[in-house]
Amino acid sequence: MRVSVITVSDSSHAGTRADESGPKLVELVDKSLKVNATVNEGSPTVVPDEVAAIRDALLENCKNSDVIITTGGTGFSKRDVTPEATLEVVERRCSGLEIAMHTGSLQKTPMAALSRAIVGIRGSTLIVNMPGSVKAVKECWEILEPVLNHAINLLKGTDDGSEHQRMKE
């Protein structure tokens, strides 16, 4: 599985604030014992909070990724436009994953209710929006990680049912 990470942040893009959540996502994917994944070279890519920049980064990364995880730009601020850009790119929504991430996060903080994160599919690429904090990235990864192999196998048409059976046991 090939994974790309995109950080959406005006200040990180401008170099005035260090990107912490993107590198944390890369670390979580690299260290995962549940997901057989390789993070694509150049991740995390950092883009500003602009629909066109986010959309273009998503489309470019769809060419060589099974999964794209964004971090940042999912809140209520006028500059938080990651969900809008993602909706321009995805062909099918994955509401179950959206609900799972929101529900899991709400168990830890009421602030999770302020996330507008989207999960969807373009072609055979899964696109997942996560909030921009390191804490939220960890929480959302814990929810995504156990189902990711099965999800990607289904998208690629390589699912033999064994992963689903293993999860039921």
Automatic annotation (TrEMBL):
GO terms for biological process: Mo-molybdopterin cofactor biosynthetic process. InterPro entries: MoaB/Mog-like_dom_sf, MoaB/Mog_dom, MoCF_biosynth_CS, MPT_Adenylyltrnsfr/MoaC-Rel. SMART domains: MoCF_biosynth (SM00852). Residues 1-22 are annotated as: Disordered. Pfam families: MoCF_biosynth (PF00994). Keywords: Molybdenum cofactor biosynthesis. Its EC number is 2.10.1.1. Residues 1-14 have a biased composition (Polar residues). Coiled coil: none annotated. Residues 4-151 form the MoaB/Mog domain. The keyword Membrane does not apply. CDD domains: MogA_MoaB (cd00886). One of its GO terms (molecular function) is molybdopterin molybdotransferase activity. Pathway: Cofactor biosynthesis; molybdopterin biosynthesis. NCBIfam families: molyb_syn. In the N-terminal section; belongs to the MoaB/Mog family. PANTHER family: MOLYBDENUM COFACTOR BIOSYNTHESIS, MOLYBDOPTERIN MOLYBDOTRANSFERASE. This is molybdopterin molybdotransferase.
